[in-house]
Structure formats: C-alpha cells, structure tokens
Request: fold
Amino acid sequence: MSFNIKENKDFKEKYLYTTLDSGFSVYIIPKDLPTSYAMVCCDFGNADRKYTLDGEEFTLPSGTAHFLEHKMFENADGSDAFLEFDRFGGNANAFTSFENTCYYFSCTENFFENLEILLKSVSSVNFTDESIEKEKKIIAREIMMYEDSPTSAMMRNLYKALYHNHPIVSPISGTLETISEITKETLFKAYNDFYIPSNMSLCVCGNIDAEKVLSFAKRYFSKQTHARPKTVFDTEPKSIKAERIESCAPIATPLYSIGIKCPPFEKQNLNAQRVGTAIRIAISLMLGRSSDFYCDNYEKGIINERFYAGYTQSRNSAHIVISGSGNDFDTVKRLVIDEIEKRKALPFTEQELLREKRAAYAECISLFDNGEDIVSAMSATAFLGYDEYDCIELIRDITSDEIMSALNTIDTNNCSLSVVNIKQGKETE
Reply:
C-alpha cells in the first residue's frame, strides 16, 4: 500500500495520506522539526450519546466519551501508560470534545517507541469495577471544578438558553448524576461500538519514516469491524429556549455572553464549511478588533479587551457567540444586534473584504508553522471530507455575495443572553 500526496505549491506544504482496508486513516505531514507529534482521533464525542447500530437504538449517559478517555491509558496490570511515555521522553495527553476524542504525544526522540505505546493504548481497553469507581471520584472533582468556574457557568447557561433538546446543553464531562450511571458495561459498549478502525485516524507530523508509521498502524488497526453507528439527534426547534439566563459568582466584574442561534447543518461537509467561513468573515468585519464597532465602543468604555465575537458550527448546531465583561451587557446586546441588522443592508466594500480575507488567509497558513497545531487541525477534519488545504482555498475564493447571503441567514430575534453577575455578600469581599 502506497501513500497519496496532497500538495499546495503556493505555500509549499504537502502531506501523505492513505486508508487501510479496515478503514483506518493515516496522515503524515513531513516537516523538519526538532519535535515530532502524533495524534489518534476517534470520531466519538459527547454528541454521540444516542445512536443506532444494527437497527437497535442505544443511549449512553452524558460524559461517557470523556470517562472513556480517562481510562484509555490504563494498562491490563493496572499501571499507567503515561509512565511508559515518560520513560521514552514522550509528553502525552488526551481531550474530549463535543464531536471527537483525541490522544496524542510529542517527543524529540524515541518516536516509534512512543507511537507504539499510543497505538497499543487506544487499540484495547482494560476496565475493572474497582478502577471505574475510583475514576468517578476523580471526574467528580473535575466536574465540580468546572461548575465553580464563572466562565464555564456563563457558556453552560448560554447553551441552555439557545437549545431545547440538543446534546450541546450537557457538559462534555457529564454531571455528578450522569457519571454515577456509568458502569464497566457502559464503557465496553461505547468502546466496542465507536473505537473501530473506520472511525479512527492517525495524524503524524515531523521528520518521520512514513512507511514505518504505516506498518505500526497496520499492526494495531488492520482488523475490519462493523460500520460506524449512526448518531441520533432529537428534534431541535429553530427558536431559542430562553432570552436570558442569569447566575451569580464571587467575581469582581460581571461576565456576559450573547448567543445567536443559526441554521444548523445536518452534515459537516465542505459546503457547510464554506457557509461557516462566510459567516466568520462577516462577524470579523462587523465586530472584530479592527472593526469600527470595536474601536468606537472600546473608546467609549462600553466594551474592553475581553470582548470576543465568533461563530461555531458542529453536528446539528450552529451559533454566534459574543462575550465579554462589564456592566453594560444589555447595551452591548442591543448594539450588536443593531450592527448586524445595519450591515445586512450595507454590503462590505471590496477593500474591507480583501483586508479581512488576507488576515484570515494568513492566520490559516500560520497553522503550518506549528506541528502541534496542524496535527490537531488535520485530525479534526479527518472525518469531514475536507482538510485545512480546502479551508484555505475557501478563504481565497469566497465572494462578497456569499458573505452577504450568509449574513442574511442570521436571525437576530433568535438571540439569548447569559450573564454571570457579582455575588453579593462575604464571598466578594
């Protein structure tokens, strides 16, 4: 089996890719760097709690994907695979998102020793009832830490205000209640159903022997299995659930987050990415740090350097988030809505568009300067049918008409506000 090559001659970058007969994808990004990187990604996250397989529907407790991530580096004898990485100078870690779970390491030497530890760890699992109960206590502390975070509370409440039934309202780590429902059988079920070669990828960056990487991948992921389960989403109304949710915390300045619910995409393909790119460019032009809106309201003291505006899309969800800190959150919400509505009727100039496209293009290209960033980005798109090269082309080719068309899909009536206010009392002293 040989590698295919994809190259962009404009910025002199390329990568090698192939897919094993089992469906396992392998990407190699050759770079002469002092540090090498490897990431195994499984297309399984907190969004995949409800799914069908072989005509039967299953529901996992919220937090199952994250819980499984915690257990993947546990060896059969109860030892920790992180100690093995340490022995070979590998810096390993893992994370779970709404859509994926990723396991990775970086090292300056002993790359293949570390790669074998990684592939061995994710290609088999070892659970005991005792170790699972022990892990529940660790994850419970993690959950309570996030619950105590004002920023986490702000975003958690924003999702609850925007969405009725979508799993995005549930924390990735789960809740104290949901993780109590997780058993050894739950984890084995999730692993056996989702951790299959056709639902996983390996991405490597560095001055690495590609054929040797491929031989390691074949050793651990050549066995063909069933097709990926189909994730099931409950019907989600187009409308928001609540216009406002407020909570309190012992903070010095209120935090706020304004969300605008946008039309979602059933599939995260290149077309969805194109629309998303158009909206991101529009948001940056309207509300970004070089915009008149930002400069004028910063000068007036209505917003500060913590002001942020962005657009996020994932499985069956899409929303704009504008966040910041200060007492003028109601004013900021009104000004943001006014600005979006004003720009719907006032097309961006070619000069504005060119400036923003150049900035977005430069930011995208800068990913390729960092091995860790490009491995993470390529892993995220491995299951979507496009890659970072395609994203760069989208930025270059996007038109003013596309941006205005995307901007006009934004319904500012579908707007929620999440506020974390100052908690009165001794806690604030």
